[in-house]
Amino acid sequence: MLVRLSAMTSFIALALATTSAAMAQAVPAAPPPMPAPVTPPAPINIDVRSDLHAQVLLDRAHFSPGQIDGKIGSNQRRAVAGFQAAHGLGTSGELDDATWQALQPDATPPLASYTLTAEDVAGPFAALPSRPSEQAKLAALGYASVEESLGERFHADPELLRTLNPGTDFNKAGSRIQVPNIGTPLPLAKAAKLVVDKSDSTLRLLDAAGNVYAQVPVSSGSKHDPLPIGEWKILGISRNPTYHYNPKLFWDARQGETKATLPAGPNNPVGVVWIDLSKPHYGLHGTPAPGHIGKTESHGCVRMTNWDAMQIANAVDASVPVLMQK
Q1: Domain count, the chain
Q2: Last residue of a domain, one of 127, 147, 180
Q3: What CATH number has the domain bearing residue 199?
Q4: 169-174 LR contacts (CB < 8 Å, sep 24+)
Q5: Are 175 and 198 within one domain?
Q6: Given a cut of 60, is residue 19 above it in pLDDT?
Q7: Mean pLDDT across the chain, nearest whole number?
Q8: pLDDT-based confidence at residue 26 (cuts at 50, 70, 90)
């Protein structure tokens, strides 16, 4: 009897073990995690008296907010404060009723319609290599995309253009898009003086009476390459320049880099214009990265967006003193 019970017990134990193993094999594996949801771009307020509208109006008034993106930020506040000071409205940097009235928002809508042409989409467009030695092999340092090219033309963040025109094929001629209504920029009057202010990252043009009539955001100097404080002379202006890269002049140059001459183009390290100063190796110039202006440091020179740099270059010459101050 004991033998039979022991055998039966063993049989039951073996059956249970076999059943458990089979059940373990039958349990399906956990499904792979779902990919993180893609966050759609935040909507941009395009109404009258929106931040986008203010940036368009400030751009037209020659108090540049830098790259128009429809978002309130440091460059917008600087532009508002500069416009306010020039119009006797205080310098709060906030869009109060008096400032809106001076900007005359009812006269100019924030957006305009534009139809892409065959020339707009013809290119060539290509991503650029990061190393100067590779850039030097190219015929030109042009735009990487249609959106980047249009961004420069309409002073806008390419991401803003994509947000304003969802689903639009920017590579197709005939596509109709909405763009910031910057109009045709009017040329600036000849300056009597140019002032770069390190404290608020701005460049201002003054007339003979000492009044500020134009202001743009800048990136100027850094801990390693401080802005050369003092008064300097303009030695010359080069439009669409080549760039002579010398790694010995850059504290952050990559090891092994050598001198190189980089071709002209909007993505040249100094953009589309170089205003040469009497301080050796220093100048006022454009940039291949307009979204960084006023928000990052430079290698000692004064960077502006390409469109602001061209406006400034057309308003100065060798007779205009350049004052750089803290």
Answers
A1: 2
A2: 180
A3: 2.40.440.10
A4: 170/116, 170/121, 170/145, 170/146, 171/121, 171/146, 172/116, 172/121, 173/116, 173/117, 173/118, 173/120, 173/121, 174/115, 174/116
A5: no
A6: no
A7: 88
A8: very low
